[in-house]
Amino acid sequence: MSLCPRPLLRARLSTGLNAYVPQHRQSPSHWYRQTAHISPARPFTNNATSSNPSLDSTDDDSADSPSFAADSTVTRTPSDRPRDDQDSGFQEPVFSTSSEGHAGSSGTSQGMPSEVGIPRPRRQNSTSLRTFQEEDPNPKFFYADRSMANGEILYRFRTRRVSQETYGLERSIRSKSMHYPQENTRLWRLNYSALYRATLYKVQPPMVPPFLRPTIEDLQLFEKIKTDCQGSFREAWELLDVRSRADHWMRLSLYLLQNSPELSLEFLLVTTQTEAEKPLFVMVADCCLYLEAMYGPRLEDWQKDGHTYESVLTTCLGPENWPVAYLPQKGTRLYLKKCGKANLYETWELVRQRQNHLSPETCLCFMRLFTEYEDADNALEALYLARKVATSFFTFDSVGVMRHCCKLLQLDSVVDTEDGRNFYILPKLLRMGIRPDRDMMNVVLANGFKTGDPQVGLDMYKYMKSQALEPDSYTYLALLSNAVSCGDRENVELLAQEIRSRNLDHNPWIASKMFHAYFTFNVKGLPPDADRDAIFYSLLDMYNQLHDITPLKELSIIPAEYTPRTRSQGSPPTIISLYLIIATYLRCQKRIHHAQRVFTRFKQLVHQGHPSIAPLTSTDHTYNEFLIAFRKHPSGLREAVHLVEDMLQSANEGQKLKDGDFLRVKPSIRTWTILMSAFSFNKQPHAAEKVREMMEKHGVGYSHVTWNTVINTYANAQNITDVVNSIKKMESQGYSMDSYTIKSFRYLQDPERLWVAVEELDNATETPECETVTSLDQEVPEEYDLDDDEYLLEQGLRRLSGLKKSSH
């Protein structure tokens, strides 16, 4: 007989044996003898007062770590060296000290989520739980673990003291659970694992042993599940005796998982919500993990009698049924991902109060969720608990732990302490023994620049160099962002040279930031005598080095016959790069008809769902650049009104782009402010007043720039009373006068009247508001003699006012 390892491995896996075979036992018939050694199922016994062996021996993927520090730990092993194949992430260890690995003990397989993994056959290990007598004043959970690593057997003996309340809760949960002989539970999970693999790899599942095959009574119950699960089946289930329910549950659960996942959801809901004995939590968790891994997207829209897919999972996996001593961790993490914020916090308090068994991976799951909810304190507490229960199979310098810490550090801020100003989260991580790597230091570097003191970030950068941490693209992105915000052009040039020397200039984020730096230093505040064509084509050369110029030709920004001076890589442009090149073009040309032509083409491409142009509508930046271009000439005011009208109508109707990834943005405060300033710039205060009225109608608040624009409009119209009222309202909203506000006063022909009006308003005990607002529904005053163009503009503003208020 051939001794080829691959057929032998397949034979061992198909029969539920461990893939590892000691050298002295690698005989062709060894795997056959192992299968024959499995004893038949023992008679059913239900002893609610004794320890449940099936619950003890089939619990968790990392069950060798109790939830809190053990009173004593003794390890007897031929060798204490770590496994050679130990992963540095959060993946489940291959040789775990529990048997939940049947439901998937490794998250490294392709196509599977890391929390679920691929089921494995039972390994040559065992984990038993024994407790001292109930009358002991200080009860203990005693763990005797045996596992195999590198062909060597490891023995671990652990004890964990608990309170009498916790001990009683454990006994109570066991007494309310269905009890099975250990062999029955083990064989159920082996067949569950075989079904899992068969569904995953789309092969024919193996034959189920006789005691797990559906009987006539099972099929009768199955018919009731199909017709009325919540009614007739629930009534029939409640009438069954304890032993019958336990036997039917084992057979029906596998049968429904294989044939009808929708009915399996209803079956789990009914059987876990009964007043009688409930199925073992570890078996319910296996079923839920199977449904999530195999049919999760398909069941997302499932609804029945007010229940949804997520509500069924959270009900079946609720923490009120969690065992205290040995808690299946994969099912626990599935519940945490589905339960929502309120239930997450309730569960966190419950497991700490009950002292439930938690693995380091589950503690990190709590940490990740708390980080998403921006709760740094509870995230740090979860990380501390993970460190407390960590075992030799779990290292805190792994990539996964560092990624969790990186996300947590993004919430860091600077606080005043007794020792001076310092970060809030970083010192706590250092005290836990976390040694920052380059990724963590990059986040600290960015946080240092966010403090408002650039020197803090630069000190962090020097520290990284002293620790031999080579900068990467994230490091240079933080340095570039700080240099651009500080206006340090020389530093930007030095960073650009260093980036090119490291061949990082083709990174899309770095390239976008370089684009932004060039736009900030050369396009913003463009002087009148600047060579606009040279500036535009210089940025266009930078664009051509990375992106395809086809979208620019389709926008009619550059001629169709244009040939780039540098070779293009042909990659589609990013949103930032495309926005910056459009903004540069609009600011470097002076003729209004160019902006009108490009905007007309822009609307056409957006309507067609262009893959590069259409995503620009997800923000207001491109629209605002067109408004700034239209503001330069009176003939562009009508286009400005149409632009805002189009944004409002698209946002109200909820139109999506063809790819479904972006929604049309509605006008922002900046958009309305630019529109108002356009009318003020072109000496049309009546139209500017109507824009202000529309902002109030659509519930748009005022920014500091908006108030300055309003004051500027009134100052141009010599309306001193409204200037004073606007200043008072601006100050009441927390804004104060700045240089732009004072600059507006130069338009007043009699500035002394302004200060007299301010003094009169301050001295008045009760001053009615003197705000003069022209209603959009009123007729135009006689002093506004509108010509044809202004009349059309007036009609456009009326259409804007007629649009329904945007939903907020």
From TrEMBL:
Compositional bias annotation for Polar residues: 44-53, 94-112
Gene3D superfamilies, alphabetized: Tetratricopeptide repeat domain
Signal sequence bounds: none
PROSITE patterns membership: PPR
Region Disordered, annotated ranges: 39-141
Biological function: Regulates mitochondrial small subunit maturation by controlling 15S rRNA 5'-end processing. Localizes to the 5' precursor of the 15S rRNA in a position that is subsequently occupied by mS47 in the mature yeast mtSSU. Uses structure and sequence-specific RNA recognition, binding to a single-stranded region of the precursor and specifically recognizing bases -6 to -1. The exchange of Ccm1 for mS47 is coupled to the irreversible removal of precursor rRNA that is accompanied by conformational changes of the mitoribosomal proteins uS5m and mS26.
Organism whose genome encodes this protein: Aspergillus avenaceus
Record family assignment: Belongs to the CCM1 family.
PPR repeat residues: 703-737
InterPro entries, alphabetized: PPR_rpt (IPR002885), TPR-like_helical_dom_sf (IPR011990)
Protein known as: Pentatricopeptide repeat protein
Keyword Nucleotide-binding recorded: no
